[in-house]
Every structure is written in C-alpha cells, then in structure tokens.
Amino acid sequence: MVGALRYLCNTRPDIAFSVGLISRVMDRPKTSHLAAAKRILRYVKGTMTYGILLPNKCRENKKGLYGFTDSDWGGEKTDRKSTGGSMFLLGTGPISWSSKKESVVALSSCEAEYIAASMGACQAIWLDNLMQELMIKKEGDAELFVDNKFAISLAKHPVTHGRSKHIETRYHFLRDQVTKGILRLSYCRTDMQLADIFTKAVKNETFRKLRNLLNVVDCNKLV
Fold first, then answer.
1. Residue 61 pLDDT
2. Beta partners for 187?
C-alpha cells in the first residue's frame, strides 16, 4: 500500500509529505499507521481527477528556473530531526520536488533552513545542467526562495561565525554557489512558501492554497 503511494508521489506532490511520514515506520508499523495510510487513500480517491498542469506558456513574469526550500525545525518527535522540502518550477510548471528528513539535528531554525537550502542548491545545479544538455532556454540564473532571512544572510555573509562554525562542511556548498553567482537567494513570505506543504501538516485552507500554487488542479474542470 505504501509502495503504491510512493509511486503516485511522482505525479502528485501534494501527498509527498504524508507518504514520506508513513514510510519512516515501515520496519515496525502499527494500527495507527495503517489508519493514516487509508486516510491518504481516501484523499486520493476523492481527487482522482487531479493532476499537475504544465502550461504551454508562462502566464507570469517568471520564466526561468526557480525553486522554494523550507524546513520544519525539530518536527520529528523521536529524534528531533527536521524535515526539509524543496519545490522547483520552470516558468509556472513544477518539474521537481522533494520531502526528506535531514540527516543531522539542527540547533536552530536558521540552521534547519540553511541545510534545506543547501540540499535544494544541489538539485538546482543539477537541473540547470540538465536543461543545458537538453538545450532548453531559460532566463537568468537559478533562483532559490527561502522564508528565513537569517539563513539567507548566513549564505551571503559568512561573518556570523557563531551560527555556522558547527555546521558540516558539505552544507556550505550553498554559500559557495551564492558567492560564485551561480545561484541567487531571495526572501519570500511564509504564506507564499510553496515548499511548506512538504515539511509539515498544514491546515485545510493552507493546503488547498498551496496545492493550487503547485498547479495541482482538477483536470475535469479544464475541459
């Protein structure tokens, strides 16, 4: 059941976080986990006609590759690790997304966001190289939106040594890409953070809003 849901995540980013959550307990599943899996299946059954809309034209000013990264600090109650999420779009069409528990325990929300942005930077560079191989034209450099100003400041200005001296070296890949000008970091409001749906359970209204922003829509209404 969980394996089928994970396969469905390839086309339904709106269930990525919930499926990833129940996938962590596959070694010792309980009755409550089965109930959670069935609830996801009921949601899928009620949204069978939903899917990703890939527009043939960009309706907005953004026509390049840009992404959103977010993290839920200490969201895992057992080991207090954070869940990082990322969402990448080409124009207005989603092309890559991820919801994954971070491998280290973050000491602050700034560090959790910084680690999530570093993981997103790796994906952004790979997508940029892939587009070059496929000869897909895009406008400008890759842009990454983060809703934590301290994490952006840490990536742009390495003077805040007290916040970063304990962070593993590999996560400073983000700072290196920003310094070279390969990747741009921008701030976005929390209510416009698309990756929020990949890091935590949100309210019904917020979930519907983010789902629409991800271009996961009812295809029957488009006919």
1. 46
2. 146
Calpha distance 189→5 (Å, rounded): 31
Domain spans, the chain = 1-48, 65-197
The rounded distance, in Å, linking the Cα atoms of 155 and 153 is 5
3-state secondary structure the chain: CHHHHHHHCCCCHHHHHHHHHHHCCCCCCCHHHHHHHHHHHHHHHHCCCEEECCCCCCCCCCCCEEEEEEEECCCCCCCCCCEEEEEEEECCEEEEEEEEECCCCCCCHHHHHHHHHHHHHHHHHHHHHHHHHCCCCCCCCEEEEECCHHHHHHHHCCCCHHHHCCCCHHHHHHHHHHHHCCEEEEECCHHHCHHHHHCCCCCHHHHHHHHHHCCEEEHHHHC
What is the percentage of the chain residues whose pLDDT exceeds 90? Answer: 48
Instruction: Return d(Cα 95, Cα 13) in angstroms, integer.
Output: 10
* Identity at 66, one-letter amino acid code: Y
End-to-end CA distance of the chain: 31
The tokens for 98 are: 């991820």
Quick one: 65-197 is in which CATH superfamily?
Ribonuclease H-like superfamily/Ribonuclease H (3.30.420.10)
Cα–Cα distance list, 66 to 44, 178, 182 (Å):
28, 14, 12
Retrieve residue 107's tokens. 């000491």
Q: Please report which confidence band the pLDDT of residue 182 belongs to, taking 50, 70 and 90 as the band edges.
A: confident
Answer for the pair 152, 187: CB distance below 8 angstroms, yes or no. yes
Residues 126 and 161: beta-carbon distance below 8 Å: no
Statement: residue 162 has pLDDT above 80 = no
